[in-house]
Design a protein that fits this description.
The chain has about 300 residues and is mainly α. The chain has one domain. The chain is built from twelve helices and no strands. α5 packs antiparallel against α10 and α7 runs antiparallel to α8. The longest helix has about 35 residues. The two termini are about 35 Å apart. The C terminus is likely disordered.
């Protein structure tokens, strides 16, 4: 690994800590606010900005994004995203370490363990990767971004066919953030300002989806799913769009296994959310206790 790539990795790790603390703080604040609605955007934004805790989380998250952009200038997209995906471990610590926090469910523990295992394998598989890939054509980058945007829309609409809202919105946020990250890499990889509007639109949609998700599910499910997709999809883009080639032999096998584990982790977290959603639906009288549990999980 070159010195530039090592510096990029360090920035990516710092970004992961800042972003996940920021999301965790925003989740805790949003859960205590009146219902947010995309039909009343200004009112919802005033509610969020009026919370000092939410505002602190948002500003720390902006700092994390600035660190992420710096990392992209120094290291390959897949390496940066693999390091950033380690934020799921940071998030799990924030949720589970407080003495007052409820014990994690079996699915949550398994989901986090699978995700961290996948990220370890990703790091191992990236050890022999060249310092940089290739700059794609604008048309190829645009095709990827259109496909990711469509996937985000489908994920967000999946709540209409029975997917728990926390899962649907968390997944949509992750896909939209992934779209913005791929567009950011395209912009800093000499494709220019053409992709800046895509970055802004994708991050705007991701922001709305995630804030709505915060009021419908736990931090681990909403931020966890978002984090996994935000990092797994750009890693795929790094391989296939930016030609950060899949290594051969054992390193290639490790990367394939890593993608499988990250996918399994996302599925297990989604299953935990589905059980929580069914529990609150089938026991209306217990809905308050479910929200209390979510509030407890959101406290630092």
């Amino acid at each position: 690994m070159t010195g530039g790539a090592a510096a990029g990795l360090a920035l990516a790790l710092a970004s992961a800590v800042a972003l996940n603390w920021g999301f965790f703080a925003q989740h805790g604040a949003a859960g205590s606010l009146p219902p947010l609605s995309p039909r009343r955007p200004l009112h919802s934004l005033r509610l969020l900005a009026g919370s000092p805790r939410w505002l602190a989380g948002f500003l720390v998250g902006l700092g994390g994004w600035a660190l992420y952009i710096g990392a992209l200038r120094l290291a390959p997209l897949s390496l940066v995203q693999a390091a950033s995906a380690g934020g799921i471990a940071v998030l799990a610590l924030l949720v589970w370490l407080p003495a007052s926090a409820p014990r994690p469910t079996r699915s949550e523990r398994a989901g986090v363990a699978a995700s961290i295992g996948g990220l370890v394998l990703l790091g191992i598989s990236l050890a022999g990767q060249p310092a940089q890939g290739a700059t794609p054509s604008p048309s190829a980058a645009a095709a990827w971004l259109v496909g990711l945007g469509a996937l985000g829309m489908i994920a967000g609409a999946s709540s209409r066919v029975g997917v728990p809202a926390a899962v649907a919105l968390g997944a949509a946020a992750g896909v939209f953030y992934a779209t913005g990250d791929v567009a950011t890499k395209a912009a800093v990889a000499a494709l220019g300002v053409l992709f800046v509007p895509v970055v802004l639109a994708a991050h705007g949609l991701a922001f709305v989806s995630l804030q709505l998700a915060f009021q419908r599910g736990s931090a681990l499910v909403t931020v966890g799913l978002s984090t996994l997709l935000t990092n797994a999809l750009p890693i795929a883009a790094g391989t296939f769009l930016f030609h950060e080639h899949l290594p051969g032999g054992a390193l290639g096998a490790a990367r394939i296994a890593a993608f499988g584990l990250v996918t399994a982790g996302a599925a297990l977290l989604a299953a935990a959310a589905a059980r929580e959603d069914r529990s609150s639906t089938s026991h209306p009288a217990g809905a308050t206790s479910v929200m209390s549990l979510r509030a407890e999980r959101s406290r630092v």
